[in-house]
Amino acid sequence: MTELWPLPQDPIVPEVEAACTRLGLARRYHELDRLPEFPRREFRAMGRARLLGLTAPRRLGGRGLNASRSAIALYHIAYRAGTAFAKLAMQPEFCSVLVERGGRELAGRWFGPLLAGRVLIGNHITEPTAGSDALAMALEVTPRGEGYVLNGTKSEAAFAVDADAAIVYGRAPGTKGADGISGFLVPQRLKGIRRTLAPLDLGERWQRRGTVVYDHVYVPARYRIGREGEGFRYLRRELIRDRGLLAAIYLGAARASWDETVRDVFERVTFGRRLSERQAVAFPLVDDGVALEATWLFTQRALARFDRGEDASAHTAMAKVRSTEVALATLDHCIQFHGGAGYSAAYPHEQRWRDVRSGPIAHAPSEVLRGLAASHLWGDRTREGPGAGRRGPRGSGRPARPRSAAR
Ligand SMILES: Cc1cc2nc3c(=O)[nH]c(=O)nc-3n(C[C@H](O)[C@H](O)[C@H](O)COP(=O)(O)OP(=O)(O)OC[C@H]3O[C@@H](n4cnc5c(N)ncnc54)[C@H](O)[C@@H]3O)c2cc1C
User: Fold this and answer.
1) DSSP letter, residue 203
2) Fewer CB within 10 Å, N- or C-terminus of the chain?
C-alpha cells in the first residue's frame, strides 16, 4: 500500500515518539477515560522528559521552539497518545502570560515548577453568565491594602479541584470591556475559595472540570500579572498562538484514526470483497485524508505568520475551526467503517471523537471564531457600515456591478 504522505517531520519527532512509548502514554490515555483523574505521575514524567514547555524559554527549562515546530511535536503526541497528553504538554503555553508578564516571582516560583510537572496551573476565565463573551466577565477585583480582594464565580474550568494555582481574570468595579480586566496568579488553597466538580463530561474527562467560587479572597499585589487593566490584552495574544497549536492536536488525533482505519479496510472483507474496494468506503476516506493534510498545511502557514510576528488572529482562529470540523468528520467515518466494534471502547476512535468534540466549544466556540476571523479579514470595511466601498444604484445599499462587456 502506498503512503499518501508522511507525518510532519522535525528533528524533535524521534525524541517525542520515544518519550510517548517509554511513558506508556497511549495505554494511560485509554484508562483516564474510564477512571477520570488528573494524571499527576505522567505529568511529572512529561516534565522530566521535557515534553512540557515546548515554546517556553530555555533559561527556565523549556525547549524554546517556535510555534510551527511546537505544533509538529504536539501533532505527534496526539497521534501517539491522544489529545490528553498533547493538551497537557501545552499547559505551560496556556500559562505563558506568567513568564511574559509575570516578573521574577511568578516566572521563577510558579512557571518553572509547571515546566517540571511539579505544579498544575489552571485558567479561570469563563463565568456562568460570561463564556463566549468573555469581556462580559463580572468577577470583581477590589484594591485593598497591599493587594486585592476577589469576589465572583468561575465555571467550566479544567482541573477545577486539582489545580495547585489558577490564572484568574477579573475586573475593577465600575469598568466595562477589556480595559478593567486584570489577571492574577491565585494559589488554590487561599481562604475563601470553594471548588466543586461538575457532572462527567462527554470527553476529555481527565480535565475534571468544575466551578470555583471566590468569596472575599485576598491576593497580594505581587501575584498580579503585568499591569493593572491589561490582563485581557495579554491573554488575547496568547490565544492567537494557542488556537493554532490546538489545531495541530485535533489533526494529529484524527490522523491516527485515519491511518488505523485505512489499514483496517484493506483487511476487512464483507460480501466477499475488501471494504477498501467499495467506493462508499474508499471515497470518504480519500476526502478525509486530503482534508486533514490541507488543514495541516493551512495551520502551519497560520503559525508561520505568528512566528514572523505578523497578525495571525484570523488564521489561527480558522485553523482551529477547520481542524475540529475535519477531525470530527474523519473520526465519525473511522467509527462507521469499523462497524459495531468501532462504536465500542475496543477501538480508540470513539474516545478520540468525544475528546475532539470539545474543540468547537472550548477556547471560544467556532461561531465566535468565524466572527473574529471575519472582523479581522475585512474589519475596516465592516465598521464603515453597509454599502461601504463603491456605491451601486442610489439608495440600493448594494455595491456597483462590474460593467458587462456586452453593454
Ligand atoms: C473541555 C472544556 C474545557 C474548558 N476549560 C476551561 C478552562 O480551563 N477555563 C475556562 O475559563 N473555561 C473553560 N472552558 C469553557 C469554555 O471556554 C466555554 O464553554 C466557551 O467559551 C463557551 O462559553 P459558554 O459555555 O458559556 O457558552 P455560551 O457563551 O453560552 O454559548 C453557547 C453557544 O452559543 C453559540 N454562540 C455563543 N455566542 C455566539 C455568537 N456570538 N454567535 C453565534 N453563536 C454563538 C455557540 O454555539 C456556543 O457554543 C472549557 C470548556 C470545555 C468544553
Assistant:
1) S
2) C
Strands 147-157 and 181-187: unpaired
Provide CATH 1.20.140.10 ranges for the chain.
233-380
- Domain 233-380 top-level CATH class: mainly alpha
Pocket test for ligand 1, best of 156, 168, 366, 369 (most atoms within 8 A of CB): 156
For residue 305, how many other CB atoms are within 10 A of its CB?
20
Residue intervals in the chain for CATH 2.40.110.10: 121-227
Residue carrying the nine cell digits 505521575: 41
Determine which residue's CA is closest to atom 51 belonging to ligand 1.
Answer: 362
Enumerate residues lining ligand 1, CB below 6 A.
122-126, 131-132, 156-158, 204, 207, 209, 358, 361-362, 364-365, 367-368, 371
Architecture of domain 121-227: Beta Barrel (2.40)
Phi, psi of 389 (to 5 degrees): 95, -150
**Shortest-distance Cα residue to atom 50 of ligand 1:** 362
| Residue 148: strand pairing partners | 143, 219
Q: At 57, is the secondary structure helix, strand, or coil?
A: coil
Q: Note whether 288 and 326 are within 8 A (CB).
A: yes
CATH 1.10.540.10 domain extents, the chain: 13-115
pLDDT in tens, the chain (407 residues): 656 789 999 999 999 999 999 999 999 999 999 999 999 999 999 999 999 999 999 988 999 999 999 999 999 999 999 999 999 999 999 999 999 999 888 998 999 999 999 999 999 999 999 999 999 999 999 999 999 999 999 999 999 999 999 999 999 999 999 999 999 999 999 999 999 999 999 999 999 999 999 999 999 999 999 999 999 999 999 999 999 999 999 999 999 999 999 999 999 999 999 999 999 999 999 999 999 999 999 999 999 999 999 999 999 999 999 999 999 999 999 999 999 999 999 999 999 999 999 999 999 999 999 999 999 998 765 555 444 445 555 555 565 555 544 43
Distance 322 CA to ligand 1 centre (A): 17
Q: Topology of domain 13-115, per CATH?
A: Butyryl-Coa Dehydrogenase, subunit A; domain 1 (1.10.540)
